[in-house]
């Protein structure tokens, strides 16, 4: 008998290009696990509208761009199913059912929602923004996913998903699966400017789509140890962003670099050059795959259409069980008159 694979459901909002922080935070896990799991990748365009409802004209472009990023990063369309959230109406239906038993106070205290609201300067949150974690619970559970590989900031949403699933299974019938979260080896990559987090909006990111020249220039301008003026000054790798990147992207050489930095035998320029080489080695195969798909836009469209069709059919199946468990499959009941 053929073994049934467990499922992964994960994805992102299409709001801009993916960067190295995304890669080490979750994309690398998704690529690694796509053979072992039946993988679904959601392009969460409705969730993008929670912050971008006035910039909706960019959505088509951003959906294609994020798909290119995924394909470039190594997600294989033969193994991973890419789909567009808004095109699965059952997700929105399930969101509505979940919102009947999800407390507003719980949503208000969600740390990621609070951080994002502050970032966007929302004094008054919209209903859709406050409730997006409920919709995310529907994204995940409608596919009966077992595992959700995401960045650290998403953990509260997966916890809420687990709670909602438990509540649903308890209230009605155990038809849903409680998912596990999986955060990457480097949950939070620092920005090139040494700030806590690599992020597009902080303008401190290296994108998967950057050219080798972009990477070289960005690394050259990255913050190092400010106390090091001359090349022979002893360095302090523990406070250096470039050194932190060596730890992540160049583990083979990191020990040697640490020693050479501390005794002043390697200068920042040489150290940065070593890093650029490593980053470009990681990105080169991605650039090659991107080129392949960039020159075949119809193929990318086909991948999205086929993935969305497959996801829709899986979501429809779960909703039959959900409606039955909730006794809202009215025409399947005996007529009570
Ligand atoms: N919240 C995620 C982000 O900010 C996007 C997302 C939507 C998601 N639905 C999901 C992630 C389901 C994992 C699983 O990018």
User: How far apart are the termini?
Assistant: 47 Å
Calculate Rg over CA atoms: 22 Å
| CATH architectural category of the largest domain | 3-Layer(aba) Sandwich
Number of structural domains: 2
The helicity comes to 40-55%
Rounded average pLDDT: 96
Bound molecules: tryptophan
How large is the share of residues in beta strands?
Answer: 5-15%
CATH C-level class of the largest domain is Alpha Beta
The best one-word shape is elongated
The name CATH uses for the topology of the largest domain is Rossmann fold
Count of helices?
A: 14
Helix/sheet category: mainly alpha
Which ranges are low-confidence, i.e. pLDDT below 50, for 5 or more consecutive residues? Answer: none
The CATH homologous superfamily of the largest domain is termed HUPs
Q: Please write the string of helix (H) and strand (E) elements.
A: EHEHHEHHHHHEHEHHHHH
């Amino acid at each position: 008998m053929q073994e049934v694979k467990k499922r992964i459901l994960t994805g992102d909002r299409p709001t801009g290009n993916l960067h190295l922080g995304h890669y080490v935070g979750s994309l690398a896990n998704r690529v690694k696990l796509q053979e072992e799991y039946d993988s679904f990748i959601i392009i969460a365009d409705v969730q993008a509208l929670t912050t971008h409802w006035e910039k909706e004209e960019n959505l088509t472009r951003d959906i294609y761009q994020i798909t290119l990023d995924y394909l470039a990063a190594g997600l294989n369309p033969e193994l991973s199913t890419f789909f567009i959230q808004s095109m699965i109406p059952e997700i929105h239906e399930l969101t509505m059912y979940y919102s009947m038993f999800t407390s507003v106070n719980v949503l208000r205290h969600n740390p990621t929602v609070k951080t994002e609201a502050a970032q966007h300067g929302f004094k008054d949150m919209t209903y859709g923004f406050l409730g997006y974690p409920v919709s995310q619970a529907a994204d995940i559970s409608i596919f009966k996913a077992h595992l959700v590989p995401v960045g650290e900031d998403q953990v509260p949403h997966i916890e809420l998903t687990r709670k909602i699933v438990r509540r649903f299974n308890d209230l009605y019938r155990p038809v849903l699966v409680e998912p596990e979260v999986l955060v990457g080896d480097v949950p939070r990559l620092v920005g090139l400017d040494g700030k806590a987090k690599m992020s597009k909006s902080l303008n401190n990111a290296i994108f998967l789509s950057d050219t080798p020249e972009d990477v070289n220039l960005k690394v050259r301008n990255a913050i190092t140890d400010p106390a090091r003026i001359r090349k022979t000054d002893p360095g302090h790798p523990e406070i250096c962003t470039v050194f932190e990147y060596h730890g992540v992207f160049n583990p083979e050489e990191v020990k040697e670099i640490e020693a050479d930095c501390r005794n002043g035998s390697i200068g920042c320029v040489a150290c940065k050059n070593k890093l650029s080489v490593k980053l470009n080695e990681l990105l080169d195969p991605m650039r090659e795959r991107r080129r392949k798909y960039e020159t075949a836009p119809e193929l990318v469209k086909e991948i999205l259409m086929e993935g969305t069709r497959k996801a829709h059919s899986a979501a429809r199946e779960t909703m039959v069980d959900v409606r039955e468990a909730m006794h809202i499959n009215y025409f399947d009941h005996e007529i009570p008159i």
